[in-house]
UniProtKB/TrEMBL annotation, chain A:
It comes from Sesamum angolense. Its EC number is 2.5.1.18. This is glutathione transferase. Residues 92-237 form the GST C-terminal domain. Belongs to the GST superfamily. Phi family. The keyword Transferase applies.
UniProtKB/TrEMBL annotation, chain B:
It is an enzyme of class 2 (transferase). It comes from Sesamum angolense. One of its GO terms (molecular function) is glutathione transferase activity. GO terms for cellular component: cytoplasm. Transmembrane segments: none annotated. Residues 88-215 form the GST C-terminal domain. Residues 1-81 form the GST N-terminal domain. GO terms for biological process: glutathione metabolic process; toxin catabolic process. This is glutathione transferase. The keyword Iron-sulfur does not apply. InterPro entries: Glutathione-S-Trfase_C-like, Glutathione-S-Trfase_C_sf, Glutathione_S-Trfase, Glutathione_S-Trfase_N, GST_C, GST_Phi_C, Thioredoxin-like_sf. Its EC number is 2.5.1.18.
């Protein structure tokens, strides 16, 4: 039976993976429906009907359609409060406010400079776009200041909002993942003792590991499709065997319909 | 004990104050002068480690980020004043969606304009016309989507005024006054109708009267 929850967008997108991680933390089955941004599908009239800004992801749950990953995550935590990680958005109003404060800090202070760095350092080279050295330098300096604040906070507290992993920490995973694993600026995190400790803990959560695997699996599927279409079947076969290996790691594949 | 709001002369704290007035919550203000760098003192950084405004103190409890503060109080005082968070889970979802749109689509280009034209301007920095043009173009595209939305919906999240609409007031005010870009609102029929409605609410008029903007 098809899952009621649908997420539209490529899992490579940081905003999409934010929502996937939240759904996985809350044990909510979902369907992931790809949107091919390289082909401009996100700017076509059909997609603009559900997301008028032409951005990803969009989320559907029965009669509800929503966009903006942090709004979607808040909605998931509200509707599915009693399943999965029940403390993800706190269990009382004061806890929730503290989590919300750090979720806002992520959105307002961490996200802008880290998004620029992720785009310039991880995506621009892949898209064969010229990097803007000035922009990289400016945003590195901004992010360093923000991470200094985090370093102090994480010396006093295990996670950002307190002793437990919450939506506030989760929201940092997508940009953090690219910075640490796909650019040479990982030392922004890893040179700060408390931030490094925190990053190690949040990045090793089951839900995040699954989200990363899902993105990798879909990437491999796209490669298989492209290789087959261009007649490179030997390459496609090697990709296929990689896909099988990835699927073995992804133990709850039955909850995800592609 | 009455909740204290820091920095009423600036825009983001006004989100909080407008919310308090709508929810009939008593409050006090504590002035912070950003031009004199009072937001970078060690005492202030103890309250708000990023050195930005607002921060609130409610007895021993401290909270920052204006949208986190407004959500907390709108929920806590749900049964009094204006309903700002929708009446159902679905309505709440739409309020959250448009609050995020305000934060990530409306705010960034407008904030850059305010900082560069008004604050840097006051500090004697020469305006960069290319930067101003780019910000205006980004904002124009966002307002086009708003105009489409508001042609079929009275307010952003639906039929009722919500936190999502409220959140646009402080920086929107700069756009139509000291930035001199009122035409961006007036040229869009439905955005114009919506802006007139929300900016004429008694709560907003009171905020401007009691805490006039600093630039």
């Amino acid at each position: 039976m098809a899952a009621a929850v649908k997420v539209y967008g490529p899992p490579l997108s940081t905003a999409v993976s934010r929502v996937l991680a939240c759904l996985l933390e809350k044990d909510v089955p979902f369907q992931l429906l790809p949107v091919n941004m390289a082909r401009g599908e996100h700017k076509k009239p059909d997609y603009l009907k559900i997301q008028p800004f032409g951005q990803v992801p969009t989320f559907q749950d029965e009669s509800v359609t929503l966009f903006e990953s942090r709004a979607i995550s808040r909605y998931i935590c509200d509707k599915y409060a009693n399943q999965g990680n029940k403390g993800l958005f706190g269990t009382n109003p004061l806890e929730k406010a503290s989590i919300d404060q750090w979720l806002e800090a992520e959105g307002q202070s961490f996200n802008p400079p880290s998004s620029v760095l992720v785009f310039q350092l991880a995506f621009a080279p892949r898209m064969k776009l010229k990097q803007d050295e000035n922009l990289i330098k400016q945003n590195e300096a901004k992010l360093a200041k923000v991470l200094d604040v985090y370093e102090k906070r994480l010396g006093e507290s295990r996670y950002l909002a307190g002793d437990e992993f919450t939506l506030a920490d989760l929201s940092h995973l997508p940009n953090g993942q690219y910075l640490v694993n796909a650019t040479d600026r990982g030392e922004l995190f890893l040179s700060r003792k408390n931030v490094e400790r925190w990053w190690g803990e949040i990045a090793s959560r089951e839900s995040w590991k699954k989200s990363v695997l899902l993105a990798e699996m879909l990437n491999v599927c796209v490669s298989i499709e492209m290789l087959c279409l261009s007649g490179r079947f030997k390459g496609a076969f090697f990709c296929y065997s990689r896909l099988l290996h990835l699927m073995i790691f992804f133990s709850r594949v039955s909850t995800v319909l592609l | 004990m009455v909740v204290k709001v820091y920095g009423p002369a600036y825009a983001s704290p006004k989100r909080v104050i407008t919310c308090f007035i709508e929810k009939e919550i008593e409050y006090e203000v504590v002035d912070v002068n950003v031009f004199k760098e009072e937001n970078t003192t060690p005492q202030f950084l103890q309250l708000q480690p990023f050195g930005v405004l607002p921060v609130i103190q409610d007895g021993d409890y401290t909270l920052y980020e204006s949208r986190a503060i407004t959500r907390y109080y709108a929920e806590k005082y749900k049964s009094q004043g204006t309903e700002l968070l929708g009446r159902t889970m679905e309505e709440r979802g739409l309020v959250e969606q448009w609050l995020e749109v305000e934060a990530h689509n409306f705010q960034p280009p407008l904030y850059d304009l305010v900082i560069h034209v008004l604050f840097d301007g006051k500090r004697g920095v020469t305006p960069d016309q290319k930067r101003i043009k780019e910000d205006e173009e980004k904002l124009a595209r966002v307002l086009d989507v708003y105009d489409q939305r508001l042609s079929t919906s009275k307010y952003l999240a639906g039929d009722s005024f919500s936190l999502a609409d409220l959140s646009h007031l402080p920086f929107g005010h700069y756009l139509v006054t000291s930035l001199g870009k009122e035409y961006m609102i007036r040229d869009r029929k439905h955005v114009n109708r919506w802006w007139d409605d929300i900016s004429n609410r008694p709560s907003w008029k009171k905020v401007i009267q009691l805490h006039p903007p600093v630039v």
